[in-house]
Design goal:
By secondary structure, the chain is α+β, with helices and mostly antiparallel strands. About 55% of the residues lie in helices and about 15% in strands. About 0% of the residues have low confidence.
């Protein structure tokens, strides 16, 4: 009969375990702790990874923001502390000179960056909000989602300098009644009426964007006419192709802008930037590092626990030397005894591993419940892929089998007559 399904075999296994309850329990905890750490740490790493992906899913991960600041080095006849601006003409120059750039969205704003926003009113309701002059390309780079029935700025709005706007969810709640549909209605922006053409959904991007749920978007051409900003650009949102080094693109953009506007090549303060691609890569590397550490810690702890199981079985074999000798004397084959001891090793390993997986999954569930409403922490859906769990179980079965060979070979290496003579 197959040893695995032999009732007597399992009675002997449970009998052996019951004789060494405390030692067996301590050893099982070692394996259990290893798989538990592996599950929890891998889940947390995945939660961090998911969190960053969620924060940046509304904007190209291989992108950067660029804006101007006062110069810190005199150059080409200009004094230190010069205030300068990116121009609309720079957009085409950058695209022509730097082929790694896929999209550029020039933006100009009133509000944000510490400046005063625009006064907006609708009848008796009013407030101060950030207002942006934008091009349609922004919707491609930053993935602006517009509620059904509305739209974002289009090329005709730019060409005709239309007085239209897209408002945020908070703006809608504060300037309009709950049951009122803002689409097609007018709001007053600094004394000029703008028609609401869309309402953009807000996604908390955790620093991945300068946007807010109260922002108002108008055509860039209309903004510069309204505020007489000429061809000045507040900042650029630049998206590179997926397979390029965005840090290199950042350096090329800065070099090119310095050359155009006669800024000293070594003036590192004259241009501000935020490289989202570099930040996203560091976040991914952090999550991958945590996953790698969890694997190393898990394997090391599981291995230590499995070795402990092997030691327990060695002690058990020594204590059962006479019993094994009697079984050998009445006809038990060496292969049968070997299989029983290996089966006991695999059984203890699997029991410990299964409990560790269940406890780890429970802790991840608790963590997910505790972090599901956190807005300031890039963390969501801490889980471990089933393939990782199955791989861990297979590893434990393999280790349990290998470590079981040591006490098994020890058991069958003793001759029956010597075993019976043992005291």
């Amino acid at each position: 009969m197959n040893t695995v399904f032999d009732k007597d075999t399992w009675q002997e296994i449970f009998g052996s375990i019951s004789q060494n309850k405390l030692r067996t329990l301590i050893t099982i905890i070692g394996v259990l702790w290893g798989i538990f750490l592996y599950i929890v740490l891998s889940g947390i790493a995945k939660g961090v990874d998911n969190g960053f992906e969620q924060r940046f899913e509304r904007i190209s991960s291989n992108s950067l923001f660029v804006w101007t600041q006062n110069t810190s080095i005199p150059f080409s006849g200009f004094k230190i502390g010069r205030n300068w601006n990116i121009k609309l003409s720079d957009v085409e120059t950058l695209k022509n000179k730097i082929p790694e750039i896929q999209h550029i969205a020039p933006r100009i704003q009133k509000g944000n960056f510490g400046s005063q926003g625009a006064y907006i009113s609708n009848g008796t309701r009013s407030g101060t909000y950030n207002i942006y002059g934008d091009y349609p390309i922004l919707k491609v780079v930053s993935q602006k989602d517009i509620y059904k029935g509305g739209r974002f700025i289009n090329e005709l709005d730019i060409k005709e300098e239309r007085k239209v706007c897209v408002i945020g969810e908070r703006t809608q709640k504060e300037l309009f009644k709950d049951e009122e549909n803002p689409i097609g209605k007018f709001i007053n922006i600094n004394g000029i009426y703008f028609k609401v053409i869309g309402i953009h959904k807000f996604f908390d991007q955790g620093g991945g964007s300068f946007d807010d749920d109260g922002d108002i978007h108008v055509p860039f051409s209309t903004f510069k006419r309204l505020y007489n900003t000429g061809d000045a650009v507040g900042f650029l949102l630049i998206a590179g192709y997926d397979d390029i080094d965005i840090v290199e693109v950042e350096n090329k953009v800065k070099i090119q802008l310095k050359e155009i506007h006669k800024v000293h090549p070594d003036d590192n303060r004259a241009i501000g930037s935020f490289n989202l691609g570099s930040f996203f890569t560091r976040a991914k590397n952090f999550a991958n590092g945590m996953s790698f550490i969890s694997i190393i810690i898990g394997i090391a702890t599981i291995l230590a626990g499995v070795i402990g199981i092997g030691n327990i079985l060695l002690i058990s074999v020594k204590e059962r030397t006479k019993e094994i000798g009697i079984r050998r004397a009445i006809g038990a084959s060496p292969n049968h005894i070997r299989k029983q001891i290996i089966l006991e090793s695999v059984f203890l390993t699997l029991i410990a591993g299964t409990i560790g997986i269940i406890l780890g999954a429970f802790i991840l569930y608790v963590i997910n419940m505790a972090t599901q409403n956190l807005k300031d922490v890039p963390f969501t859906n801490a889980t471990v892929p089933l393939s990782y769990i199955f791989a861990a179980l297979l590893m434990m079965i393999g280790l349990g089998t290998l470590i079981g060979f040591i006490p098994a070979e020890k058991a069958i290496s003793t001759k029956p007559i010597d075993a019976l003579r043992d005291e």
